[in-house]
Amino acid sequence: MLRSRHVDLARSYDKTKVRVELDSHADTSVVGNNVLVLREHTRHVNVTGFDPTVPHRQCKVVDCAVRYVSHEDGSYKLLVINQAILVPELEHCLLPAMPHAMSYE
After folding, report:
1. Are strands 76-86 and 57-69 parallel, antiparallel or unpaired?
2. pTM of the prediction?
3. Is 25 left (phi over 0), alpha (psi -120 to 50) or beta?
């Protein structure tokens, strides 16, 4: 059974700015603690980075949202990111560029 609820972002989300970057080297979205977590998945993932001397770590997988402000007209959009890896100390979001490029073909 899927439960839904109304989330008032103005009241429950007090972070003012979140930087979102397209990462051409990423194959999965990675988010920090500056997103609104909508759902935590039950599975965790083992994550490794560029540096082979740094051991892998377990991270949560979440569905989350960030608010996007259009530079053209100032309107707001809600960007929902599904199955992202949550790295709490990360101060920005990384989105893989490949799925976005493939969606235009």
Report:
1. antiparallel
2. 0.71
3. alpha
